[in-house]
Amino acid sequence: MRRRKIVIFSFSKILIQLVIFLKCPRGEDGYTININQVEPGTSNQINKMVSAMSFYAYRLMVRSTENRVLNYRQLLHQYLFDMYAKIEAGRLLFIRLNQKKLRVDEYIHLKDAITNDSDPANHGKLVILPSTFSGCPRNMHEYAQDAITYGRHGGKPLLFITYTFNPNCKEMAQNQTNGQSKTDRHDLVARIFRQKVKNLMNVLVKGQVFGSVKYWLYSIEWQKSGLPHSHILIWLTNTLRLKQIDDIISAEIPTDKNLYNIVIKNMVHGPCGAFNSLSPCLKEGNCSKMHPRQFIKETQFATDGSPLYRRRKPKDGRQTATVKMKSDSVVIDNRWWIAPYSPLLLKMFDAHINAECCNSVKSIKYILKYVHKGSDQGVFTAHSSNNCIDKIFE
């Protein structure tokens, strides 16, 4: 029997039936490019087409009736991954077919060709990825140049805040159904995290809880364990004085009961050192976060300009805490494992929010490190028979 290959276009409406057949048990059609939009009031079709992003966002919406897709658990992750790959393929196809509209002729493509290939003879037609395509080199370098502009006009940022999503927040518990765990709903994690970051930025910038904000910049990263976090840089209009730091940043175990519970739950580093020799922060037997610290009565700056936060002794009326480990409990004081935090932000968001007084422009490079690091992925090259440089393939 003669074999033949069956090629299915990535925007075929039957693709989803072949990839995840449980999603379409009755053979329902998936997304295709010729779905017309309708007017909300009259339900009349209009000439505009539904985008792949809008189509799958609609399929993932939480409704009063049960949405079967959201109950697929691990299969939901595969569905999201495949459909986003489909969305991105559509964007790349649009870019490839609309190079003239994107005015790629205005790009310095000859210089790019020489830089990339080191062969001036190989400067055929270029397929350019514009800076509007998220994650491409032009996009990342554009953000890096914006950040450098902030540093040139505003100097060093004054606050460095790291917000990590709390998977035990009440919003997660309220939206999980049918015995779902937190790892079953990455879509829910992403949505709630986005809303939390927007609220946090509104508190910092519009609420001016630390003073008038001149510039702000943040990046979002996803840990391999699945939790997203955001690194935020804040330039204040007025410079922070040494005595003002203790009013907005603390590195001590609080005496307030509610704040005490939040700090012990979210802001204790480790344990590490002699209590846990397998802690990932240990390098050559020493904690890379420089714990334990020294007792200090007042906040001061080190010789390199970094702040040494106030950490008072228990005999001065400060609190101690008991940290539970796998097989034992450890009593700690202000020297041990308390990450600097903002009491106000912790009470508002009940999550890990590390707040630091920043005194170096190196922090800009830190939050934009993926411009230099690249992605965790295999490296390969694709060669074409014609002398054409294609940024999408690269």
UniProtKB/TrEMBL annotation:
UniProt signal peptide: 1-30
Pfam families: Helitron_like_N
Key word Signal present: yes
Annotated TM spans: none
Positions of the Helitron helicase-like domain: 55-234
Entry keyword set: Signal
Source organism, top-level taxon: Eukaryota
Name this polypeptide is given: Helitron helicase-like domain-containing protein
